[in-house]
Structure prediction request, 180 residues.
Amino acid sequence: MPPPGLPDDLQEFKAGGSGEWFPAAEIRYYTNVFLVQDDKLLLGYKKRGLGIHKYNGFGGKVEPKESTMDAALRELQEEAGITAPLIHAGTLLFVVPGEKWAHIDIFRAEEYTGTITESDEMRPEWFDTNNIPFDNMWEEDRYWLPLLLSKQHFSGRADFEREGEKYSPKKWWIGIDSTT
Ligand SMILES: COc1nc(N)nc2c1ncn2[C@H]1C[C@H](O)[C@@H](COP(=O)(O)OP(=O)(O)OP(=O)(O)O)O1
Prediction:
């Protein structure tokens, strides 16, 4: 059974952790874009802000009056210097008690135009898809990134405990959209 905040018609893929889901809170919207070409995945090493020193896709906050797609394209241009046709790959909710829920629309791209360029925020780097640096990424990425790579549309939720800048996963649930 999917946790609160996710659609009902999902097939469980991975779940773990323990305890109760944290209560509902206001939502803040983010985007995240992953470029996949053949057996290579483009990630960015985050140089500042949330997730500093971790590898992640390229993305950030959706600005007021901006569509999610427009926000994803803007962040990809700002952070990696490229533009790309984006495919919606999935949606994730990240929950930390006392903070707004992070609703992240995740996109996949398979081609791009422009020159991949380091920015103030991200240092782009290609990885083999069989050698993704999960130990230096957000912990729950290892559960859903295989679905992005296999083109299965997903939704998930992960609740974290926070101590200072350390986020520890408490409970997570990832499902595959039954229509894919
Ligand atoms: C907690 O789990 C998370 N996992 C993953 N994989 N990605 C996450 C998680 N929490 C946040 N993110 C993503 C969402 C965004 O792509 C970035 C954070 O965006 P940021 O705060 O840097 O937003 P910007 O608008 O770029 O920030 P500035 O205001 O500094 O430009 O991380």
Q: What stands out?
A: DSSP finds two helices and eleven strands in the chain.
